[in-house]
Amino acid sequence: MADIAALRSRLSDLGRVVVAFSGGADSAFLAWVAHDTLGERARAVTAVSPSLAPEELADCEALAREWQLHWTTVGTDELARPEYVANGADRCAHCKAELMDALAPLAAGAGATVVLGVNVDDLGDHRPGQEAAASRGAIFPLVEAGFTKADVRAESRRLGLRTWDKPAAACLASRVAYGTPVTLGVLDSVARAEGGLRRLGFGQLRVRHYGDLARIEVEPERLAAVLEARAEVLAAVKAAGYTYVTLDLEGFRSGSMNAVLGER
């Protein structure tokens, strides 16, 4: 059961923390609570790379300003790691290794611990990045305090944080079919396609990349809206470089690319 008092207590025990701050509901909640609990002993750091959508970086900056977080950015270069580019089922492990290689020195210099916004629900999916981060010293305070995704959103709403209903986000590479190399061009195409669809009013969505083909996921209740805006949707996605555009009738679901892992 989620317990914000336990979360604050755990953060207090850690003393100083560096929060990996991507701007999503989980990391934003953790960053806010850490700042509210520890003040200047909490530092929020956003890793900037081609796998972070430009809109997400802009929102991190806006949130840091609104909440007066002690915020900074650090560059990461996942694309320099051949294992990440190869995009196997363990891609996230190499991504988190790159993240920790960037954050760990910052934390060590401040006598702090790196904390990630992993929640209890995340433990049930294929998330090799969690193990990679934990093996490098990262702590998951939300898990220790019993927070599920729903708990994070409910508590964020109670606290008046505008991120309480922010659509779930993930790194852009999570949109790329396993085995398809992750390149700067691929990430840019995904970012442009999703940005175009958001400008059309679609919030919770994914554009899954299969070479020349884009598979659009939106919430089931929004499927009809995609068809109603068919011409605009096609224009937005094709402008990002795709030749073929498909609509997934199952609708949005986090981690849908992992379905093939069970089949294998």
Could you walk me through the main structural features you see in this protein, from its secondary elements to its overall organization?
The chain is α/β, with parallel strands linked by helices. It is built from twelve helices and seven strands. The protein has helices spanning 4-14, 25-38, 54-67, 82-86, 91-110, 128-135, 141-144, 149-159, 184-199, 223-228, 230-238, 259-263; strands at 17-20, 42-48, 71-75, 113-115, 205-210, 213-218, 244-247. Strands 3-2-1-4 form a four-stranded parallel beta sheet, with helices on both faces. It has a three-stranded mixed beta sheet with strand order 5-6-7, with helices on one face. A hairpin with a 2-residue loop joins strand 5 (205-210) and strand 6 (213-218). Helix 1 (4-14) crosses helix 2, helix 5 (91-110) packs parallel to helix 6 (128-135) and helix 9 runs antiparallel to helix 11.
